[in-house]
User: Fold these one by one.
Assistant:
Number 1:
Amino acid sequence: MGSFWGHVDEGIFFILIALWWMVCAFKEYIIAESKGMSMKPNIHYDVTICKPLPLEIIFKILFPIVGFLGELLDGGIRFQDSEGHFVKLVYQQHMTIYGIFIIHGITDLMAWLKAPLFPMFNYVTALLAFLWYGVAFYYHANMHGKQPVEMIVHVLPIFLMFLVSVAIVLEMRWQDGVWTMVTRAYGVLTLGTWFSHVAFMLYVHNKFPGGHSSNLDRSDPNNVTFVKAMFGMHLFVNLLITIAIYLMVYITLKLLYGITIKAGFHRGAHDYQHLSLGESKFDPDGSKFKDPEQHENGLESSPMLLDPEA
């Protein structure tokens, strides 16, 4: 993480995961709403190519492994100097962050394989990963020798890490509706765009991995204020991106398959039935919706082909 490419790689990872979550969650939400049902959010979404494939999970395992190895090998594998003093302390901190995300990916894969794990253990490991992420960043920002700009760029995203953690807890508790999923994806998206931006603020990027500091005056109060304003801009722009993605998904489903939903203020609690992606209303691959009456008659249809007005 302590270089230009270290921040950019982490940022791209979060951006891709968040956008994937948004597209999949909005699609399932709109399809469920068109049938008067509520969706069940997921901690991951499969890519279906002939059959469901856990590509997101594999991505969530491989990326932090690369980051972990990068932190371990950079500067040699050593944690104490010849006098017994601890060295590479920041690297060790980063390794623990990557390590817990690796464990989350593995537990997510085991859940996908239906291994006999504790219930929702993949959610628990995701929660721990983001909680420790926030705690580690707090202490990272307050390490001795940090200048004001470097401190503030690490302090500002901490609340997003805890926001994602809260969304995960609520999702574990209720397992219903789209809002926990949207909150989680929005928080992760903003972490991704922020870390990518921070890379350009703090480091030069004319060579790999771009570990040299930029010419930005890290002690200038004006630069600290600018950084705060930029973080607010990330919150603003990413909210617009979230809304835009929802509208694009909705318009696509409406134009291609005629799927529409009622306006939010016209719906009441009596309009909803619970929709669980793991229950019999869906095929095991989660891609085909089964209407109860059709299922009794041995008929089924794709969610994209359902007429919500039927």
Number 2:
Amino acid sequence: MKQYYAIIFSVIYALFFRVLADFNIIEINSFDYFLVVPVVLGYIPFLFDPETFVNSIYKIIFFSWISSFLFLLIAFIFHLEDIGCLLILIPTYFIVSPLIGLIIRSILKYSKKGSIGNLKTNVFFLILIPIIIGNIEKHIEKEETHFVVEKSVLIDTSSKVIWGNLFAVPVLTNHMNRSVYNFLGFPNPVRSDYNPKTNVRLGYFDNGVILHEKVIDLEEYKKLSFAINVQQSKLDNSQTFMHVIKKESMIFNSITYKLQSINESKTRLTLLCDYKVRTNIPLYGEFCSKNIVLDFESKLLNALKSKIED
């Protein structure tokens, strides 16, 4: 029975640190939350029933997966995370926790018998490690990496016609393709409204997110650039947007359309996203951001092409 207490305690432990992130005691987009907490989760089962887990590789893996699954499920149900966040967390929690458990099992199995009895020594220090590391990490300057991701499409019409659809983008719902990222919680753009008096465009997404975008540069029929005002945008409907954009882990410098006339009836439309990623896990941030941004650009451009040529 003690082994099942390990699952309950692991879930409560992970949820506790997730709530701490909302109170800014630790950071949500951090080495601490992504890796240190899963490491401790891999250790917790041995605090409750060390003999059982030392003698069963399968229970180490299974119990780690069950604990991680229940934690992420509860976080999703209570809107602490959305599916986009889960996509990012699943690899670390489902790989790191059982891996740490297997390492501890090997150490205990082939060490002196007294080692099992010493597991609970300094246990409170171990439990508090994420808080300690999290507070240290908050004072370490995050690595900042600059990216420009672009995608182009050929549209069978003039640059003038395309230009008229960029400020106030028409409803694209019937022209927008869906990708695996949509099933993982990342929204599709629906339409945008433009106010010429304020020079502001509001971009509406299918999950209720509204981006407040200011025109910062334009060259008629050739170039149009926007900057996102995060404070005036409505991001509450997406935990992913809140974590990534609101917390400034991903900072968009500009979103730019470029038009190149091929001839009177054909134009190349290019969409460029200029952004920075601020994180303590740079390779992970780079991989995720590039793929998500490229998927967004591709779907938006193809939807515009379909709408305009329709």
